[in-house]
Inverse folding.
């Protein structure tokens, strides 16, 4: 009996020691590999994901001879929020605009490389950008509702893309888009009033509803909260969290706090190079590249 008792306690103590060793193993960071030096420009981190929604490979953006985005390779996952951060002029917006060919409207801009959705390179000149921009919607820095009624702001897209069978169908799209954008309860009684009469935060949600109404797969957001107060910003951030159940979201933001709050992965750009991309928590707490560390600790930009 005593033998059994001793053995049990012996086992118990051994187990406790082992648990402590395991615990130590789990909580103490492994000795980090040396941080990548500033001169290195090859992207480090988690560039690829399983079953990506968009696959960017060697993307370059030039404005005349200015090389604004340099050989960027990056996957955007399904149901993923990817934040793009970096100092002013590092190429975040230029890269974002590649994802729905918005750079086409800039005369001196040229984009090279592959941007693949459903095995199709959307950067080929033969691609029709109208249906592409329905699949990859965009929300801009400044809310830009059409000078039309709230209803028409949403109904316009589905109507021109032929997404509604009839008037009832169109009405359903309008209601469900406003619901998904978290605006329905605030505007249900005034759908015929101008969208421009809404507050800034409501206008931005109207623009999100407008993007949703044409059934996109991806929503691009270029500093969507920079014109909003903290309360309206929090509403949009919560909304993003809900929307990623249905869409992939790529957001350019100047706010590291916002990137940390909303995104699953964060991409850090520097002078046109994608320096590092990784799980958001890791990038902000244990960056792999010296330039990322400089930026997040406020030593640069
Ligand atoms: N139409 C243009 N013609 C010439 N150069 C341009 C044009 N648009 C952008 N650039 C340049 O390309 C570079 C990248 O600009 P971009 O707007 O993509 O950077 P960003 O990181 O989004 O900057 P910000 O955070 O200030 O908005 C910058 O040097 C910018 O001056």
């Amino acid at each position: 009996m005593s033998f059994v008792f001793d053995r049990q306690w012996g086992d118990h103590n051994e187990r406790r020691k082992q648990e402590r060793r395991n615990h130590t193993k789990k909580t103490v960071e492994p000795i980090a590999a040396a941080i990548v030096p500033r001169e290195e420009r090859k992207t480090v981190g988690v560039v690829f994901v399983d079953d990506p929604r968009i696959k960017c490979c060697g993307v370059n953006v030039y404005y005349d001879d200015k090389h604004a985005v340099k050989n960027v390779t990056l996957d955007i996952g399904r149901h993923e929020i990817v934040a793009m951060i970096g100092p002013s002029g590092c190429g975040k917006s230029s890269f974002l605009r590649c994802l729905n060919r918005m750079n086409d409207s800039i005369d001196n801009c040229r984009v090279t490389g592959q941007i693949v959705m459903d095995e199709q390179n959307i950067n080929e000149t033969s691609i029709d950008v109208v249906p592409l921009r329905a699949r990859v919607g965009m929300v801009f820095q400044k809310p830009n509702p059409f000078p039309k009624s709230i209803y028409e702001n949403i109904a316009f897209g589905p109507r021109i893309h032929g997404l509604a069978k009839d008037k009832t169908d169109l009405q359903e799209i309008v209601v469900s888009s406003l619901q998904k954008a978290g605006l329905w309860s605030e505007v249900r009684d005034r759908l015929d009033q101008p969208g421009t009469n809404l507050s800034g935060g409501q206008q931005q949600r109207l623009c999100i509803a407008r993007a949703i109404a044409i059934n996109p797969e991806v929503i691009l957001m270029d500093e969507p909260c920079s014109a909003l107060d903290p309360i309206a910003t929090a509403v949009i951030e919560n909304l993003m969290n809900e929307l990623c159940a249905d869409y992939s979201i790529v957001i350019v933001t100047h706010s590291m706090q916002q990137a940390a709050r909303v995104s699953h992965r964060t991409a850090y750009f520097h002078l046109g190079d994608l320096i590092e991309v990784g799980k958001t928590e890791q990038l902000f707490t244990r960056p792999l590249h010296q330039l990322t560390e400089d930026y997040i600790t406020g030593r640069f930009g």
About this structure: The chain is about 40% helix and 20% strand.
